[in-house]
Amino acid sequence: MYNSPYPNFNLRHLAAAVAVYELGSLSRAAESVFLTQSAVTQGIAKLEQQLGYQLFVRSAHGAACTAVGQQFLARVAQAFHGLALTDGVLGGARAGQRPVRYKQFTWSHLKAFKSVVDCGSSLRAAAQLNLSQPTVHKSIRDFEVICGTDLFHRTAVGLEANFTARQIAQHVGVFFRDLERSVESLGQDNSESRATLMVGSLPRARSDLIPNAVIRLLSEYQNTKVRIVDGPYDEQLDSLLHGRLDLIVGALRDPLPATNIEQVPIFTEDLSVVVKASHALVGRRDIDQQLLHDLSWVAPREPTPAREVFDRFFREAKLPPPSDIIECSSLVATRGLLLASDRAALLPARQVAFDVSSGVLTVLPVTLPGTERTIGYTKLQNWFPTVVQARFIELLEHEARYS
Questions:
Q1: Minimal CA–CA distance to 353: which of 151, 239, 208, 203?
Q2: Could you say which of 166, 240, 252, 356 is the most buried, measured as most Cβ atoms within 10 Å of its Cβ?
Q3: 71 — alpha (psi -120 to 50), left (phi > 0) or beta?
Q4: Where does residue 383 fall: left (phi above 0), alpha (psi -120 to 50 degrees), or beta otherwise?
């Protein structure tokens, strides 16, 4: 569900301001959004009062964008571009025309729709939005009329979003997120600015990469609110697609799991065989693939990239995958299993460097060809990072390069 820390926006005022920014003229902007010029002027004034920033400088020649206005409205324009994708989901345009249903949406429509999709119930959505259930029902009915189609199946337990509704909800979620980032970008040239960073953390990134980058980020931008989310990749990808995450950091996927995302590599690494310091194989130099095959293992769960690397190593040695496996994607649990048994795990050497230096774990001196994997971050296509988000990526790259 969408809970914005900012006041509700009038989307027509936002659209009018974007039109002035893009067209450079109040009169042409008024024509494009079907408002009078005075209505556009009043709407922009209310928007500026709401934001606490001046977006335009008025003169006899019209309205020119301030530097803050350019920064803010470029992001808002990107947000509206994403919302316009809902028309493609709905289809039904007549020949030679582009549908413009999204321009009829109001803030109330979008909030009610997204909340009902997320909650699966108009009653729960009404409670979370602090509205009456009839008010939410009316917004949903109006939204469906604009869309020209039913979006929910009425069931005994609530409202179940259909496939079209779930697709639209993705675009609406990203729209809300982009608007929040647009507001956060105001005044972000200084360390006192308020910002939010929501990061999906995959196993490889949890132990050092993300924590170290976040600590350095907060030393520069003290008021940034950081949320680090772990969990299965599919859940994190769904959150990214719905605007609940800004990016996912960890092992990249091949093939690409969605068409509207991009993966950016940061570094590659090989995996090593890790055991406890008192393991029987410590000190041996004649460790071959058959000996490794016969070990008991702690392996990542299927179908993660690390598990594919694990299985491929044995396939290329003409051996079946080991049969005695405990599936585990938690480094803390893997560490505990290694220390309590004679099991082995396939891990990046850098990820267990502290335990190795402490003398509790050991990396066996064996070369594992074909175990290279790529670590990086995943983002939505056309993602427009804020100053804080862009700095976080720089710090991730720094950690990968120098740690």
A1: 208
A2: 240
A3: alpha
A4: beta
Would you state the structure tokens that stand for residue 253, as one six-digit string? 């996927």
Largest CA-CA distance found in the chain, in angstroms, rounded: 85
Sheet architecture: strand order including 344-347: 325-327, 297-299, 344-347, 272-276, 361-363
Q: How far apart are alpha carbons 237 and 307 in whole angstroms?
A: 19
Neighbours of 254 (CB within 10 A): 11
List the domains of the chain with CATH numbers: 11-169 (1.10.10.10), 191-268+375-402 (3.40.190.10), 271-371 (3.40.190.290)
What SS3 state is found at 339?
helix
Q: What is the mean pLDDT of residues 241-262?
A: 94
Bridge partners, residue 228, by sequence:
199
pLDDT in tens, 367-399: 888 888 899 999 999 898 998 999 999 999 999
- Indicate the pairing of strand 195-201 with strand 224-229: parallel
Q: How far apart are CA 291 and CA 172, in angstroms?
A: 54
194-248: pLDDT as tens digits: 789 999 999 888 888 999 999 999 999 988 999 999 988 999 999 999 999 999 9
pTM here? 0.83
End-to-end CA distance of the chain, in Å? 38
State what percent of residues in the chain have pLDDT above 70: 94
